[in-house]
Design goal:
The protein is of the alpha+beta class and about 625 residues long. Helix content is about 35%, strand content about 15%.
Length: about 625
């Protein structure tokens, strides 16, 4: 477990803090890490959606509400393409059908039809899938492509490998998601079974991840052990741990596909030192990050071509462009400017090598919710850098869960980054009823405040509630309590934005309606808590209280800070005589530019002059009025 770090090529090696004069670094640290991570993973992710077209995929079960399995797969593929356009439009997606009568692929493999080549998703691809879904009973599909179960899964996987190899773009992560409800496609042909297993092993060695999105066939259960257990090279225990029960509904299938398609890339990989020379490698991941709209792109108004902004530093005196070596940095101390070279700034900001250092353990109750500084991260072991990291990590996680403690650590996330204290909050793995992982095992990295970050506030005295009022409030809380989960509430602003873009891209007349889940369900609240709310109002407010009148009441004045002077009232000018602001005096002194636009306009209006135009035009009219 112990390792000499000098021999390990850590991924933080090329993340540099830059040469700004920000000695604290704390405020921009999260943004800098995210930007560096974005630059590091320039390679495009790619995924091939491999869909079985055998006859069994078109059979509908009696209790099915979402159509046959093939229809589920097409809907899922369409959703993946739409999600890619929004979240990562640079990624590559291909859709390959196997088990068709006709074939279309570069190697002329029989019964394999490449519906969409490996490329970036666009509106035309989505429309093509929409037309296939709307085809009643898939009559057009069966007429144009047909069905034939004489395919070879080895050829299917080989075709996917060729698609990755022939891509002209640089590809990072390569994945194949296989959709099927047939648990043994080559039940009577051992040669094809052996070839498929060998080809799956070759793809694994090439770094191509093959995963299965399995569904139950009508009236039966999907059995991994018959064929796909050997293709995926997993044991019985791993099947139970890694693969959920077969999907029967569209929502289940879509959630699993998105879970597999979600990028799990570490924003950094650093050593975790436990002391005494014992170290392991960990990857730090971001589980929560504010989702924003894509930034706009600047275009040339004449040619409509994309333009790229450039930043240049110019000398204030000579106007010449400055090179990075010509730039120095200053910090004002005691009214004097202290000059720093770029290397000196880096040295001031350096606190040691990046890594996580264990300091000790504390009860979980010592971590307070009001100590929140920024969104937490998540750490997971990385055996590729230090062997045995997973074993040591699991032992530490189990021990901390049993003792209900958190680990207090010192974290330096990158070079030239200030150290911070963090608490490692252990989390056990959680699975749902279908054996789908809902929470991964690992540690949440909770960022802790320093003493300088804590503020002591003076709270105004407020009336205390009596026991009857508290009991009424508890009853309301009890009636309106529900299980809140962030993933159940989408941002209505983003959804409206994306729906409009989707309608424009797909040439639809109007965008689809969105449901704003952030709006309170007033009817539900009334059904659940009408009486408790009325009793609470009666217990707290006076008998003559009227909410409508209270809302129209004049708002209370803002509380002024201690020692603050009252704000000066803005004066209104009139003529050059009886006004709080003597405009003529400002004009005689040549200081009209210090007056605001409303003041200048009010004066011009009072003397019957036009008020349209820029500030310079207004000043000129005032000077002309006074003959200056």
């Amino acid at each position: 477990m112990a390792s000499t770090l000098d021999s390990v090529s850590w991924l933080y090696g090329d993340i540099d803090g830059g040469g700004d004069i920000d000695f604290s670094g704390g405020g921009d640290d999260e943004r800098d890490i995210d930007d560096a991570t974005e630059r590091r993973f320039d390679n495009k992710d790619s995924v091939i959606l491999l869909i079985d077209c055998s006859k069994q995929m078109f059979e509908e079960s009696e209790d099915s509400e979402d159509g046959c399995c093939f229809e589920l797969c097409l809907k899922c593929a369409k959703s993946v393409l739409m999600n890619k356009i929004i979240s990562s439009d640079k990624d590559l997606v291909a859709i390959v059908l196997f088990g068709t009568e006709k074939h279309k692929n570069s190697s002329d493999f029989k019964h394999i039809y490449v519906l969409q080549d490996l490329d970036q998703p666009d509106a035309q691809r989505i429309l093509e899938l929409e037309r296939m879904v709307e085809d009643q009973d898939f009559k057009k599909f069966k007429r144009d492509l047909g069905q034939n179960n004489s395919f070879s899964l080895s050829d299917v996987l080989w075709c996917c490998s060729i698609l990755f190899s022939n891509s002209p773009q640089k590809i990072g992560h390569k994945r194949v998601l296989l959709f099927t409800n047939t648990d043994d496609p080559h039940a009577t042909d051992r040669t094809k079974q052996r070839q498929a297993k060998k080809k799956a092993e070759d793809m694994f060695n090439l770094g191509i991840e093959v995963d299965i999105m399995h569904m139950n066939p009508p009236g039966a259960k999907f059995d991994f052990s018959r064929f796909y257990q050997d293709v995926l090279m997993v044991s019985d225990e791993e099947i139970l741990a890694q693969y959920p029960d077969p999907a029967d509904k569209f929502d289940e299938l879509l959630s699993r596909v998105r879970g597999k398609d979600h990028k799990r890339r570490a924003m950094m990989r650093i050593p975790f030192s436990l002391g005494g020379g014992v170290e392991m490698a960990i990857g730090v991941y971001t589980l929560v990050r504010s989702q924003t709209k894509a930034s706009h792109i600047w275009l040339n108004s004449r040619t409509n071509e994309e333009v790229r902004p450039q930043t240049k530093y110019l000398c204030e005196d000579t106007g010449t462009a400055l090179m990075p070596t010509d730039i120095k940095y200053t910090q004002t101390v005691g009214g004097e400017k202290v000059v720093f070279e770029g290397e000196e700034v880096k040295a001031v900001k350096s606190f040691g090598k990046p890594g996580l250092q264990l300091l000790g353990f504390k009860p979980k109750s010592r971590v307070k919710m009001h100590h929140h500084i920024r969104a937490s991260n998540f750490i997971y072991p990385d055996d590729t850098l230090i062997k045995g990291s997973g074993t040591l990590f699991t032992a530490l996680l189990s021990g901390m869960l049993n003792r209900d403690v958190v680990a207090i650590c010192r974290l330096i996330s990158r070079r030239n980054s200030p150290p911070v204290f963090v608490a490692l909050l252990p989390q056990a793995e959680e699975l749902d009823d279908h054996n789908v992982q809902t929470a991964p095992p690992g540690f949440h990295v909770i960022y802790l405040p320093f003493a300088d970050d804590l503020r002591k506030l003076k709270y105004e005295e407020s009336p205390k509630a009596n026991q009857d009022q508290i009991a009424k409030a508890k009853e309301i809380i009890k009636k309106l309590t529900f299980k809140y989960q962030s993933e159940n509430f989408e941002n209505p602003v983003l959804q409206k934005h994306f729906k409009i873009l989707e309608a424009l891209a797909l040439e639809r007349d109007t965008p689809d309606d969105i449901v704003d889940l952030t709006e309170p369900d007033v009817d539900h609240i009334r059904r659940r808590a009408t009486n408790p709310i009325a009793e609470f109002v009666e217990a707290v407010y006076p008998a003559d209280y009227d909410p409508a009148v209270a809302l129209k009441a004049k708002p209370a004045a803002k509380r002024k800070a201690d020692g603050a002077e009252p704000a000066a009232k803005r004066s209104k000018p009139s003529d050059d005589g009886g006004s709080d602001i003597n405009v003529k005096e400002f004009a005689d002194q040549g200081k009209l530019a210090k007056l605001t636009l409303p003041v200048l306009k009010e004066f011009l209006r009072s003397v019957g002059l036009p008020i349209a135009g820029k500030k310079a035009d207004l000043i000129e009219r005032v000077n002309t009025h006074f003959g200056l």
